[in-house]
Protein: AraC family transcriptional regulator
Organism: Runella aurantiaca
Amino acid sequence: MICQRIIPAPDLRQYIKEYLVLHMKFGKDIPTPIKAYPVNPEEGMTFVIRGTKTAETVETGEFKVRPRTCIFGLPATRQNLHLPSEYMMVHVRFHPGAIHKLLRIPMYELLHQYVEAQAILGREIDDVEDQLANATVYDELPRILDRYFTKKVARVKVGFEPIDRIGSVILANPQGFSLSQTANDACLSFRQFEKRFERQVGVTPKYFARICRFYQAYELKDTRQDLDWLSIAVNTGYTDYQHLVKDFKRFAGVTPNMLIKESNLNPERRLKLNAEFVGL
């Protein structure tokens, strides 16, 4: 079993943040594992090698079986991920806006969508799935994806412009981001900038910054569970604790303490696969 974040090949790092290789096995007499999955600033692809994942949208109570290989945009609401007794996948985490750069898809069309990869990429993805399924060691998995995505990136005709990296700038420092200044730097009106950002990332810059700030607070507490929530709020740019609670209820559907409690019961932690693994 494994739960490990892996950095992609150097030529891919402006597109892909990391690969997450995950393989878990639970006894068949143990209840189906559930992973808490709040709203977060993530877009990517998931390649499922063993098992089937079912996503429950908590707000509506709707259950959907995820495709074996899917491309997805930002999640818009809290989900619970229901996993089988054995589950193996490689999760490809892209930088904000990188899927749009690579595939030219308007990301608002992928907001809270998990689309069968073949519908977007065609039959070329079948060979990647076969290689992943036939890999004999975990180390092969990122190398297979490196080869595939290197070919995809080579077909991109236009290089990165400063505006293409705005999502990553907000993700790194959501509380210090100036929307008007960034629009001016890009020589765009506020509305032009907002529309272009929505096309690249899926939501407005202001809303994306709010998601990033929430996730930064969650990840900090997840990493430093000895810190009190007021310190977390101050360190992540909230004006007070109540504003932090409001965002947790909006993006996780529960109080801050409850989300941390749920996260501590996530499947990879119950199996103690990686003591340093935090976040999603």
About this structure: The first strand starts at residue 2 and ends at 6. The radius of gyration is 19 Å. The chain has a mean pLDDT of 94. Residues 7 and 18 are 5 Å apart (CA to CA).
